[in-house]
Protein: NADP oxidoreductase
Amino acid sequence: MGDITIIGTGNMARTIGTLAVAGGNTVEVLGRDQSKADDLAKALGSGTTAGEWGAVPSGDIVITALLYDGVVPVVVEYGDALSGKVIVDISNPFNATFDGLTHSEETSIAQEVAKVAPAGASVVKAFNTIFRDVLEKGRPHVFIAGDSAEAKASVKAFVESLGLRALDVGGLQMAPWLEGMGLVTVGLAGNGVGHGDFALGVNEFNG
Amino acid sequence: MGDITIIGTGNMARTIGTLAVAGGNTVEVLGRDQSKADDLAKALGSGTTAGEWGAVPSGDIVITALLYDGVVPVVVEYGDALSGKVIVDISNPFNATFDGLTHSEETSIAQEVAKVAPAGASVVKAFNTIFRDVLEKGRPHVFIAGDSAEAKASVKAFVESLGLRALDVGGLQMAPWLEGMGLVTVGLAGNGVGHGDFALGVNEFNG
Structure:
């Protein structure tokens, strides 16, 4: 159990917040619209607070629960307030037809975030391969990628506090492939897999 | 059960050939080194034949069980002999350090094969996310991508003849992401997941 800040007040912020509270974490919610942040904090309960937009987040882990095109601007806006934090990017930069990514496949939102993050901050890609409703009702595997072993250990502990398994795929240079796996998940759902109630994960076969 | 041709005489050719024979398929093996093809055909048994290098393959499905950099050249060499065939590319274009792909992420070996394949041939990406030893002893999910629904149905039937589940992720433009998932599989293994005895797949959560 740790201190988590969620930047964002939308559906994914609510879902992750709900799981985080249930997992015994101390949660802070930040929203540009303070009333929405206040409402979400109240809805999450269990001591969840709504911080002040732009101030230093209280959580050691800061989850940017934003649409993909909002992540880099918000990290830039927060600037040094994120120094020393573990920034968790959960976004999926899907194109308008959900069959490709918006950016060149040579990069990822997570890597772009790392470029603008302040000194001492670490970036971890996580959660993006999971549909929100599956996160609410299932026990999906959570793929994580990042360059800092310490930051990944911190995110892994958080994931496990939610009752979920974290799967470390490697450094942040793997983030493009996790973003591609978000696309693969959409593709599989479009072909009727599990009536949409599924997530990519690992299946083990050892003895 | 169908007619399958495997181009290649290495370990992956042997593994897929073994499963294909067990699944009741009629198998042909093709190798540039005819004696190796003859040996593999004999080892696979059950009527497996070794065809003549360069001649029209007997199988409707032609699996190129080759190293990634051999696939496009062989498809070019075969040329019109592959007309009307379903070409299954199973390759992983890993770089020397196994933490990136050799080609730009804007393409994939499968898409490069499609560019040089003769008229009437269809290309399907499949099997590349599965370690060979897992394919031998487990029941891994087989992700497939391709632009022809008919070709994918044919590959799906073949996969099912092996007792495996085929998961259609969409068109051939998804092949880069399947190649990335090959890389993610290596990354997970490097982090100790399942002692290497695992494969990416889907986990379902519906009621």
